[in-house]
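SAMPLE LOG
Freezer: B-3
Tube label: C17
Construct: single chain, 120 aa
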Amino acid sequence: MTAKEKSTKRAGKQRSHLPTLEDVDKGLISLDDYEIAHGEDGAELTEAAAKNAVFVSDVPELKAMFERARGQRGQQKAPVKERIGLRLDHDIVEHFRKMGPGWQSRINDVLAGYVKADGK
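STRUCTURE (predicted):
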């Protein structure tokens, strides 16, 4: 069965019950859709709560957590490769490209082997 057939089949089935957290875990429904179906919206902000609010920037650990969650990278665990411009003969580039994706990494591996064999 193709993905399109599965999607069509799933769309044809109408839910007669409220979604469960198990449905969320299985990826059948998003957590937002689950909360909407159950009427679980966040409470409105009252003046008293606003007075006691703390800015995220006032809590460095929390700020760092949110920044990482937005896709910002932490400290590198492995050395970073350097981006350079390198002019190579056409036939050399074609040879590695014919091998498929990852051809640039294979060129790097060949050069790394040369450096290692050179022993300096």
